Amino acid sequence: MGLLLLLTCSLLSSCSVVHAQRKFTIRSVELFIEPHVNVTRGTNVTVRCRALVSSLDQEPLSREYVIYKDNKNVYTKTSITPEDLLYPLPHARVANTGNYRCGITIEGKRIKSEDKKLTVTGLSKPVLRLNNTEVTEGDEVTAKCEAPGETGSIFFSFYEGSKVITESGVNGNQLEAQLPLSSTGTHTLHCTYVVFIMQDLFKSEESDAVHVTVREFTSTPVLEIYPLSDVYEGDRLNLLCTIRNPLLDSKSGYLYLSQGMTMLTAGVSAVNYTVVAKSHVPAEFECRFEMGRIEKVTTKQIAVTELFSVPKLTISPAEVFQGDNITLTCRSEIYVPGRINNRDLIYSLSSFREGFTKMSPGVFSGRTLPYEFNYTCAAQARGVLKESQILTVLPKVSVSAPEISVLGLPVVGRTFQILCHSAVGSLPISYTLLKNGVPLKPFRVTLPWQKATFPVSISSPQEINSYRCQAKNRNEVEQHSNSLNATVIVPLTKPTLFTHPNLTQTYLYEGNELLLICEVTGSPPVTYQWYRGGRRLTSASNLSSVGYHFQRLSKEDGGSYHCEAGNEASVVRSEALTVEVYTAIWKQALIVGACVLLPAALVLGCVLYFKSKRGKREAAAELSVTEVSNAATGLDGAVVSVWTERPPDAGDDDVSNVVPPDPDVEYTEVVHPHSMDPARVPLRKGTDTVYSELKNAPHGAADHHDYGSLEYAGLNGEQPEVGHCSPEVNGYHDLPEPVD
Q: Is the dihedral angle over the CA atoms 273, 275, 280, 283 positive or is it negative?
């Protein structure tokens, strides 16, 4: 009993599964490589898998797609939509080269496409990077060779000149290596790489032939269409798909009725279907019979006459700006008068109906949007609806008030560029340069990177304010800029070099203060350079805001001076100015005083010296006369010689017989304490001081001459000479002769 129940349940389950089996057929699977099977590196490649599947059920089928490359599964996706499967290869590389195939599986039914080979040519340029470009002899350089964007198995090689240093293969797009550099000098390094795609393929010889006979399947599908001719859009077509000469049970095969790629119906022995004829839908119908691996197809195509043409949407005016009033017109130019008339056509805007008013059949009025928008319209008659192509309206933007400026620095007397530019406005834009309101030059900008520039020159800084710009991109509207306002550079005039104090009215002496002033006219800022004798002066302490300042002049500061002045427009040079510095006045006076006083001091010294010697001689003579007078008085009037004998020194024994070449002269000061005989002595009063010249006679010699009573005694008859001066002693010039 249990076994019977189990068998019953199994049969019911099988019947349910058989009843639930979906009715579909996989017509074909194709693989496409876009844009081409031979592309260059960097091309965006798409591998497209297209499966044509017809199904009787409305519920979508689950499709499993697989993309193969060189017989390897590289991409899998499950989808329930009939769209093509896309396998993108962005920026294709050489590594993407290979044989591609796609397959589809639906509820156990699997079909694969034919192979197509993709060939990608071109490799990216290798990039070599070094950790250091300067190393010591014996050091190694770390080098990295990169193959930007490449993938797969890559073999890298490093070279010095044409010599290979090292090479290696990696599964990546870069390789780092240590490069030894043995010799000194400059080494030139580079690297290359090779990408391995696959090994070469070798083809085997053909096998022995085997003959197979295949007989044709005699049962064929039959397709009937009514009406078959004189068909217009909107007509109803009756379709019937049957099989002729069925040899097997009808349950073992299926019939499929399709229009183009759309499956209409399916059945076992006969199927029929009614469809509305449309000109834009392919009028090709197909009746397909499938049984196991057997497929039989019958097709028919009918001509459908267009009831009315596809409407065309136009805009007026053709050139519009943001917010302008526009008119959209939707019209079908052609229709079949015997079937419909113009009043049967109903027009409507398919998009953005708000803001538009229907003025008449197919005519709509409204305003443009401030941005780009796509408009479409539709025409409908006898159940046929047709839409126009998309009309893209891109309203232009009115030009804004232009801005006027200068390129670079405007310099008086030189040509410079004036730039006119509007921040907002659709191209093309016409710019015109105005001077005092008078148009000068037009310039039409048609490309985004173009600039409206006008070459001009001015003769004064104020002239630049007379320029303005005018811009327009529609006939009736013009925009004007403000007056040009820019800083104008005036070139420097030739500098004038003058001094304070004025050198033409005064002399410069050491220690005086001097200010050199370089005067120019032109646009600031002005920089000054000072030169003496052609050499630039760099002393910061002498530089001032008005010139070159000498606080205390010296003789070394004399020379030829000139200045250079420069601004952003020019550099000019002054004439040379000679500065002469004289010796200080006090130094001149000192030199003159030294020249005068030195000889005078020398003469005065001589005079004082001889006066001192003369005084000593007079004192010695007076002393000798006094002694003679005293001797005469005390010796009864006898005359006593004034000569005295120099006593010999105890140490003079050895030289007693030697007569000196120049007798020694001694001066003795004599004071007269007693009164003298006025008859013997010249008049002297008081205690007069006289000088006696004593001649030291040789040892042992005696002078017995009696010179009488004298005031001065010339002991040797010689006159002393000092400095070639001849002394005179109180008017007495000669000594008396000696008396025997």
A: positive
